[in-house]
Structure formats: C-alpha cells, structure tokens
Records
---
Amino acid sequence: MQIPSVPLILIHALADAAADAKLALVGGAVRDLLLHRVHNDPWRGLPDLDLVYEGPANELIKRLQHSLPDGSQCTWREHGRFGTVEAEIVLSGSETWLLDVASARSEVYPVPAENPCVSFGRLEDDLRRRDFTVNAMALLLSRDADDAQLLDPHHGRDDLSSRCLRLLHATSLIDDPTRLVRAARYSARLGFDLAESSRQQSHEVMARWPWAWRLGDPPQDAPPALSTRLRMELELLFAREPWPQALRQLQSWGGLVLLDEGVQQTRAWIWALPRAMRMGLPLFPVLLACGRDPVAVAARLQLPHQQQRRLQNLVRFRDDLSALDTRLLRSWTAADWTDWLEQYPEPAQLIPMALACGDQPRRPLLRWWLRWRHVKPEVTARDLLNAGLAPGPQIGVRLRELRAQRLLELEANR
C-alpha cells in the first residue's frame, strides 16, 4: 500500500536507517489513508509522519542523517525519558517533512486513571496499548517494495469498513477514561458510531466509577485521567472538532459525568454554548457553569486561573442573587441594577456568562449588558474640579450620582 505524496527517496532512507528493525507509520495517518481508499473520504494529507521504531528513536535519526540524499538537511530534538524524537527533514534543499519518531513501547496501568508504567517493547506491544482498533494499525516501511505492508492485529480495517469505533480492551475506560472523550471527537469528525460492546462498557464503567477518587473528593487528589489529561482532551474537542455533535455523543454515552453529574444530566449547555460563542466567551468554563459545582471541577481540571476566578465570581453572583427578595428586585430601577451588578469583579465577563447559562432575571441582566453599562454622566471629573469641587473621594461619589440620574432619565424617556 503506497503512502500518498511521501517521496520514495525518504521511504528508502528511513528503511535503510532502520536496518533490520521494524519501522512503521502509525496513528491517524494510517486510518485516514484507509478511509480514503475504502470510503473515498477526503484525504487529509500528512502534515507530519508519526513513526514507531523497534529500537532507540535517536539512533534511527542519527543513521537517517547519513541515508538521506546529498544536499538534504536533518535537524532534530529529543524529548522525554523514552527518547521520542521530533525531526525536520529538508530533501535536497526544497521539500520539508516533519517526523515524530517514538521507540516502540508497552504499558500497564497498575492504578486505574493514573499515568501508565511504560517500558520498551515491540511494535505489536505499541499497537496493543492504543485506544481503538482503527488506530491500532501500522504500515510497515520497507526498502524492497514501494508498497508498505499493513499490520492489523486487532482487525481495525473491518471496523473502519463499518465506520465503527471499538475500544481495544475490556478495561480500556477503567485504565484511561479520557478515551471516551477521544471517541466523541472521532465520532463527530469522522461520522463513526461507538460499537455496542464499547457503548456498554462506557455505561457500566461510568455507573460503577471504578476509580479511587470520586466526585466530591478534594480536586487536587484527582488522578491525571480525571484532571489534566481530561482537560486536554476536552480542549482539543472544542478547538478541533464539531463540538455540538461530539458533546451530544459524549452525553449519550454517559461520559459527561466525568466532569460533573449536573453537566451529564442537564441539556442547558445545548443553548448556553452557542450563546457563549455569540458573546465571544470561552466555551469550556461555560460548559462547567451548567453543572452543579463548576468551581470544584475547574480546580480539578486545572483550568487557567482567570477562568477559575470568573467561575468563582459567577457562583458568588448566583448565591447573592438567590438571597435577594424577589419583591425588592421588581422595584429596582436601572440605576439600582447597575450599582449592584458593578460591585462584582469583571462584570463585563460575569454578566454575559450568566446570560449564556440562562440565569434569571434575564431582562435586567440583558439590559445592563446591552445599554446600561455604556451610559456615562454628562460631565467628567475635570468638569467637577473646574466647577470648584475639591479633589478626593467625593468626585467619584458625585459622578456615580450623576450617572444614576442619567440612567433614570433614559428609562423614563423610553
């Protein structure tokens, strides 16, 4: 099977550098190539080549530098304990290729949802540690033939033919629940369905919650697959995928409970997130704001401090608002609402988030956002100083009084 657009001189150089050890193209490129051939899906191209090598990746790259044609350049960086290498290859001074080369490895999860224990292994071990059968295929590179040999030990090609996502193991989600978020991403992007056995695994695992850390426990104690890795997968979902479809799939599989039971049970996000987009708000914190305890979830996922602070302000705002007498609220003027809303930090971020989530009372919040916050007094601080008012706090007090009067006049003239 040929790899489109990859020049044979690069394939031959890689095969020469690999010598007698196995070297294979892996990951989404193999899946997408087969999708193109089987279903005539659009070929997405190869922005880089993900390769797995049965040996030290840095040794492969060192030999590759001597296998490339004259005039080629190779620069590379090594990362991590297992020597993953990022290389940039410039062929004969023109065409550039990016290579991500990893040493073949195996992994085990001694503690579910924690980071796995990883050791060097064979190519078959590396494919066995992947998430879905359609991602557990490889094209074995060889110099002796222009066509690469397909390795498919887990029958991923059959699932790809039926556009099916099948988890690789019976404990896949116990080991790493973020795989379910990845399934939602692929489902939305590629139009795949989750296999019935994998769907059943999802519902059973989410209901059983087999991890030592549980919702409500201290956020800082959560394992990586329920904290930082989960955040990273959801960030990719929002950044790269048709997120409405992906979130609907994730909810249908019971997967939003990984965030919060309230987020799993509500449909509010279906309307809240499009509103947030129109208001220019980041989507992730708005999704959390639809749940029961957004502050705790944001802390567990280690969202940026600014987003955590805004969720804290939103929770405080909601609590304060619910404590107010509704009869008092009905009597408030535009000036009263403006004075009360602007006591909170960053009201220009807080109020649209509340509006996106459908918080009530909607009308005064919307009026503040669209009109009242833009109203200014007709005089400035310098005007008051020129009129003889002494410098000091009274300047601000007088400006607020004049702004309140202006708001009352505008409302009276509506």
Note: The radius of gyration is 28 Å.
---
Amino acid sequence: VLDQMVSLSDTVRDRGLDRVTPVVWALDLVGRAATAQADIVAVDTAEHVPLVPRRHRRKVIVVPVGAPHAWFEARDHRRTSSGTGDVASARPLRVVFFGLFTPLQGAPTIGRAIGRLANRDIRWTIVGHGQDREATERATGDADVSWIDWVEADDLPAVVADHDVCLGIFGTGPKARRVVPNKAYQGAAVGCALVTSDTPAQRAPLGGVALFTPPRDADGLGRAIGALGAETSAVTRPQRAGAGMGARGLSPRAVGGK
C-alpha cells in the first residue's frame, strides 16, 4: 500500500523550491516508481486522483484524513468542563490557527484579516513557525495576537479546544485547491467553528459544517470571523454541526469503514 497523501515533488513545487529542476525530476521518478510497485494507492481527495498516472488509477482509493481519537477526547473534555462547549457571550471570541506557514496555508491572508479586525474584541492564537510566518506577523498590525512557536502534538488538541473558531487554509496554489488540511478535520472534531477556503475539495467533506470564504480573500475572511463574533448563535451552529459530523464521518473508525 502506498500512502500518497503528500507527494514529495508536489510539496517542493508548493513551497517554491522547484527551481532545482533535477531534484524535482528525481522526486517525480521516485513517486512514479512507488506507484508502479504498489497494489493500492491511497490519496485523500478526489482531486488528487488525476495526479496518479492513468494506467495505475484502478489502484487508487480515496481515504479522508479524518482526526485522531485525541481530538474527540479534547472535545468531550471541553463540553464537560464548560457545560455546553459553546462560546460564552460574556467573553471575547477566541480564534486559533496552527500550521507550518507553507504557501498552501495562506497564512498572510489570515494576518491581513486579523489586521482588519484589530479593533474588534477578538483574541487570536497563532501556533507554528515557517516560511510565511514573518509576512503574517507584519500583516496583523496592532491586533491582540498570541504567537506560539510550537506546541507538542499531544498537547495541541487541548490548546485548540480552548478556542471558539479554528481557521483552515486560504492559499491559491494548485495544491491548496486539491487538499483538505488536517487542521480542518481536527478543528471540527474538537468542537470549534471551522472557517476555511471555498474549494471543491473542501466542500465535499465539510459542506454543512464549515464556513467558506474565497481563497486569499482577507476581506471575506474578516467578514466571516466578524459575523461569528457578532452573536453567540452564529458561532454555536457550526460548532454543533462540526461535532455532529465528527461522530459520523471524521473518526478513525468511520474513515476506516469507508
């Protein structure tokens, strides 16, 4: 079985490192050789199927990434400790993004949206470090942002569960339009309202759960987050939808059963 969720050559291209042409050729060769040897090739979205050579597509299965058990456990703990798990109307809206700041994540778009909402009563948590971190920081201006360079994987579900809204990805590149990021599944599983970019790949599993905005549209993202902060019901509806979908389709058992 070949796990082709992340292609090495696709990643190199997305991060703008494909100027080293021999490296890309070599990675493409490795990918083709591995595909040829495999009996089953697992990809995470239908949009990734055309990247597999036509003669090998009969081997392909589409397996959603889903979310590990720890994220559902963090959601259950959140609901137990808070009573409902819903956003409290007496405190600021709490929004989190976590990632490696690669181009597909579109973090500078998040930074610009944060800058536009700097005068709103919103608390922002940004976790991670990487290629677009500096540009994202510059874009946030004077907003109230907590920057955390790293959180260990075992601790991350609890950190995200302490927020009302989880942000997905907002990049515009080819890879960004083909993927559903793990943070989207994890944010929904932990009981956050999810806001992410409007792409067919993400709408397929997350329609009815996430709030969608156009890729790289800071104004649209800002409006979506601002609306969530304007009234309690606006954020609790997607929180509950995400939690319900988690039970039906995001857990390891549900994904494996497909």
Note: The chain has a mean pLDDT of 88.
---
Amino acid sequence: MKGALLFIGDELIAGRILNTNAEFAAKVFSALSLNILEILTIPDEEEHIIKTLRRLFEEYDFIITSGGLGPTEDDLTVKALSKAFSLSLKEDKALLSAIFSSQEYQGKEEMARKMSLLPEGAQLLDEEYRMLGFYLPLKNKKLFFLPGVPEQFQYLLEKRVIPLLCEVGDEKSLCAEDKIVKSFIFFDLNETDLNYFISELNNKEKIKIGYYPIFPEVKLVLYGEKEEVEGLSQKVIERFKMNLVSDKEESLNVVIGKILLERGLKIATAESCTGGLLASLITSVSGSSAYYERGFVTYSAESKREILGVSPETLEVKGIYSHETAQEMALCAKKISKTDFSLSTTGIAGPTGGTPELPVGTVFIGLATPREVFSFHFYFTGERRAIQTLASFTALDILRRYILYGKGFFSYRFARGIKEKAL
C-alpha cells in the first residue's frame, strides 16, 4: 500500500508552529509496511484543498490529513472534502450532543453545528466523542481526517488509523498472524545508543525499526516476524532494563502511578524550579488521588522555610540550590503529608540566574523514603521548559527505579553527584 500525508493550516505554512505531527507520523510509518510516498503542507484555502485531495486520491491507496476540523471560519477541510467528491454533509446527532455538553461550546450553537457536520459514509474515530476525527472509505480507498492538536493526532493515528489500514483485503501483511508490532518507551536513554545496539543485532530483512522522541522519552517500534521481534525485544529489555519505562506504550507518569497504586503507596511533592509541573504530571493521570497526597510549590527561600520548615541555616549556609536543601524539602514534605515517599526539586531553570559555579540547568532533586533521604545533582541543557520537564520526569524516574530495583541503580546521563542520609 502507498499513501500520502496532508497537513493543512496557514500557521504551518507561515512557520508559526512546528509541524510535529508530520515528524511523528513519518517515524511511525517508517517501522511499518505502509509506504508514505508524499508529505505535503498546504494553507487553509478551499480550492487548494479540493485540488490536492483529488490528486492524492487518484495517486494513492490511502490519505491521512491533519487540521482544519475546528469551528472557525478558516477550518475548511470538511467543506472542501464534500465539494471534492460531491458528498453531502449530515449533522451527526450524537457528536452534536457531545459538543453541546462541553462548557467550551455552551451558547455557541453555530460553531457546534459546524463541527458536527460529517460527509456521508464517514465514521467517527473516537467513539467516546472526546476529539474530532473521522474515517471515510471511498471507492476502495481509505481517507482519514484527524485533528491538528498533536496529542489527539498521535493518539488517533496509533490507536485507530493503523488498525484500520490493516484491513486491506488481500494485502494484510501488516496484520499477518506471523508478524507483530512491539513498542517500548524509554527514559534517560540516548537514541543513538539504542540505535547502535539494535543495528548490531538486527536482521534487517526480517525486522523494521522506528525510533522517535516523545520528549523527554524515546519510543522504539519493532515490526516483523513474531519470533524475530520477540527475540530482539528480549535483548533490548536485558540491555536497557533500567531505562525501560514500559512495553505497553505508557508514559512515565502513568507507569509510576500504577506502581504506587499496586503497592498501596502514597507520595507528596515539594517543588521550586519546576513550579508545579511535577505535581501536574502526576495528577494528569486519572485515579491519581489514590496515591498522590499533596504538593507544595515553594519558590522563594522564605516559602521553603515558612511552609515546609527547611532550616534557615541550611538555606543560608548551603544555599537554596544544594543537596542539603533538596533533602530537607523532601523530608519536610514527607513529614507534613505523612506519606511513604516524597520528591523535591530546586534549581536554576533559566535563562537567567546562573553563575559559573551553578550554571543554568543546575537542578537538585530530593527523594525521601521510609529509611533514608537522597539528593541528586543534575545539569540539564535546553530552554527553560525543557529543563523543567527533564527535572520533573527525572524525579519520577528516580522514584520508579528505587521502588523496582533499589538504590543501587541510580545512574543518569546528566547526573553530577548523589548524597544519601539515613533517617
């Protein structure tokens, strides 16, 4: 099968936002027996969309589009599609009801009705009506229209589009019983190291490999004959055991939640440089109230002292960016919250505030356990948000490794030191 990817949006053409959907989709398909021969980006112009859809339909077996499904005047994809193939548009009652139930569209009837219009023969990809996106089988071709929001695009592509593309009559190579797709999520692993290790082992005639970063994690996809994929998977797991977050396509915050829930453990957080991002990652998972007790954002030295109880001597003598402050923040949060574990972060996310001794990217992460307290000194690189994200994910991974493997497995690429104190 051969197909094309079509990305629609003036903001993409103008470079106002990066086309992360194109990068994601290309890397997904690189590991599968589905050939993407053309990737296009076009503006929100109705006639241009119509002409492009007609041409791609004549040349390819499937088309995947992104963008133009929203309620605004420049969201023209559905209208252009109906004109391109003379398809009538019909209001989907269930979709309209779901849109009306959202607070975002209460009192915006015209917008809601526009979004509920689907071409005849279209099938919604999300049966729970959480996001727009539909599948249109047309004259033995497969057309997919996905939202431009990256999280929604990526979810629907992997969970709905790929399985539907398997249903191709006599060409079921992707879904053949003797072939499987295996996915892994890694953290604190250099993609180059992973690629080098697998290239030394891989029989390229039997297994296809796809890598793509989902910052700050890395995803690996293996596709091929079942026996070969399972054999290579086992070698990857053995080699990168500490870095393997999941073999079920689950991100670190989901995995740590399951670990805590299964063991009946609770956690608290005390944050400075991450500003609540660590707590946000934990609580973004449904059911996190079962294991997340509370969080403190203590940005200033005064708040660390007044809210958490970090000693003035530690703050003045050791400094707010230090092993000792990270340890005390974690210990105080654990004591106040009466939890099994607590995590803390303090550091310099930048772009200002760094010194020669403590440059931007310096972060101390604390972990308080029932028996001891640890602090880790890291040096992360990147923009402010990247540093905050890396610090938050690293804190979660420190907890994951401690619970699963013990304190003997703390080894990180960006680490500059570790201190431990018994309780």
Note: The chain has a mean pLDDT of 91.
---
Amino acid sequence: MPIRIHERKMPISPEDVRTILQAETDRFGTFFNLDRILYHEARYSRIAFTNYKEFRAMCGSPSIVCTKRAAIREILIRRFQVPEYKLYDKDNKASVSKEVVEALLKDDTLTEDVKRFLELYSTISKAEYMASYLQQYKKLPISLMEDMDNQRMVVAHPVWERLSTSRFSASSPSVQNINRDVCDIYTAPKGWQMVFSDSGQIEPRITYSAFIRDPLIQHLITLYDDAYFGLLHFILMTPAEEETARRDMGSIVKREVTPEEKQKRQRLKVLGLAGNYGSNNLSAVDAELGPLYERKIVSHPARKEWEANVTAQVRSGADRFFGYFGTPVIPENTGKYRKGDASWARHMIRCGINNPVQTTAAELMCFSVQYARKVLGPEDHIGSYKHDEGMFYVREDRVDELAPKLRECLSYHVEGWIPIGSDLHIGRKESLYVASVF
C-alpha cells in the first residue's frame, strides 16, 4: 500500500531528513564500481579523440578544442556564415549551449556541412564533459570490500545540504542524478543488493492535484494512469465532448494508444517543459498541439486564478511561497536576478508558480525517508535519494521481503489527489554502452 497522507502537515522537518541522509551515508556510504568508471572514462576519451580529426579539419585549426566556445561561435559565424541571431539563447546572447545547438540541428535552412560540424561539436563536448565528470568518482577511496560482482569499488560519503526549495543536494561527490549512460557505476558491497524505487510523474500529478484542480483533468490522468496521455486527451476534446464529459465522466472512453498517440504524448511533454521554462509562443514549438495547449492548459481558469493569486502576492510584497504541506520557500538572489532589479518581480512570479510544486515534491520525500527508515533493518541503508527516487542497500536475504515495502516508500495516496505510484528495480541498472567484459 502507498503512504497514506490524511493531514496537511509535515510529520518530520526537512532538516531532520537531511540529518538522516547524512547519518546513513556517513556510517555506510554510497558505492561505485571502479572498473566500470575506468571503462566509461576511456570510452568517452576515445569518442572525443576519434572525432577531433574531422572536427578540426572543418574548423581549419589543428589544435582547437570544444571548450573554446567563443572560438566555436566565431567559426560558425565567419567560416560557415551562420547568422549570429540564430545562435541567440533565451537571454538573447550568442551561445553554443546544448539548447542552441539542438535548435540549430533542426533548422532546415542550414547546410549539411553546418549540421555535421554541430553534430561533431555536440558529440565531442558531451564525451569530454562525461570523461571529466567521472573524475569525481575515480578519485574516491577504494573500498577494502569487493562489490556484488567481485570487482573493485570506491566508496563515497557525500555532504547533504538542504536547498531553498527543500530539495536535497549531495555533493563531494554527487550521488544523485547519475547520467543514464553511466548508471551502471552504482554498485553494492558483497552481501547487499541495490533496490531502486522511483515515483512516476510526480510533478505533473502534484500540479493537477494541489495547484490546478480540475476534476476532469484529474479523472483523465487517473483513467490513463499517465499524466501526459490524460492531458493529451483533455486538449484534444472538442467543446461539445468536454461538456458531455463534465456531465458524466463515466462516459469517457480512452483513446487508443497508437504509435501516433505516443508521438503526440511526447510532443505534449515537450510543450509542458517549454511552458514551464517561460516560452510565450507554444505554437512555434508545435504548430498542431501548441495552440490547443495554450488554450486548454495555459489559459485554463484554474491556472489563470493561480497566476493571478501569485501576482497579487508579489505585488503585495510577498517574499516567500509555500509547499502544499506548509514548508516555506524563499527565492534567492542569483547571478541573473537580484532583489530590487526591474526583472525581480517577474522572477518572483515564476518562482511562485514553479517552486511550490518542487517544494511539495520535497515534502513528499520527507514522508518517504521517514517511512523508509522504519522499513529498513539495522544492516540495511539508504544509498541515495532525490525527490522522486530512492536507492537502498538491502541485505541479500531480505530483498524479497523489503523490496515491495520500499516500492511503497515512493508511492503516495494524498486525500483528494491523483494517485502517485512508483516503479521498482532490483539490482544494477545496466548502461546501454557497457562492453561484454562486465
């Protein structure tokens, strides 16, 4: 059974949760397979090396490196005649960021030579970044124990910090958000097994449960057990279909999940991300679904009311917002936004929309950590946590008993909400790129 939450209050403070996470990784640790780290480092270094010859020939420079981004911009503009405005990022500055490069690769007006140059730049940049990223694990102390596969492993004792949104960050090194390409570097000591549990679509389910409450949208998401198929069904409804559905939700028939519907679902997910990051022209993102999303979601009365309330709070001098369970979040000064600047009010309004959702996810994680610590035995440990996933070290003879309970740790049944379920994975998450030597 999922964690059942009946009251709108926290059972444990975020600071107490930080203390639990710190104690767990201090006394046991989080483990990484050293041989896989070395393999991936060599693989990425080889990718960069083998692509540089063609890239440098296209640049007309035998020694240029991808980290010299100003030089790369100039080559695109001067050598390949790419108009400078096409390199502008969301801050209207010329850039070769990942987002700009992805947009250029989709630009049908650019020549094949330009696109090949960008593909090489993207490939090399990612490879160099990943080889560098893996250094933080390579430098960790080698454990005296072997891992579950009788291979060498290193052990991390990260430093946990609570962020302004009450999410938790692990540093020195990071043990969260390991890139999927190298997810297999996670390992467990011999005698233990890794159990992964992660919440499904936690942020959209929070959004349409706690902040944009529409019974029809909630019903559709629950009907499909998928936030994006539910939202897709909603925006594709004609006014007459929506009116009928609101009168009798039991009459709604699920759309057939065809390959075309799956493709539309992915496009809708992209629209949602674009809207969250401030795009004000979703029609340009998707000519078919963009106008529907703007009309049915962006202009939804509940969303407009939410935005109006946040705007009124900011204009009244509010300096903080709150998660669903009451945890405050105070937007901080950043390099781009500082209190007193002309752009601060707009920044605060964006924070007032986005931060409470993130903080609510962090609040649910607090419920989860408290529950997990009750489930785990004295020899079982929390290996890492983020707001929608936990990784646990469980003694091998207790995996069958504890795995279902740990799945429940990331499932939530909040009264009046769309259910938040979770997935379970036992053992190593294999990378697509691992050689058969492992």
Note: The longest strand covers residues 192-199.
